[in-house]
Amino acid sequence: MSGEAKVKAHLEVGDIKVDFEGDVNQVFESIISFLSQIYPNIEIIRRIFFTPDLAKLSSSIAGLVEITPEGQIIAPNVNLTARSAICLVLLGAYIGAKFGRLQRDSLAASDLSKFTGKAKKTVINELPRLIEEGLIEKVSEGEYRITTLGIRRTEEIIESLKKGK
Question: What is the pTM of this model?
Answer without folding.
Answer: 0.72
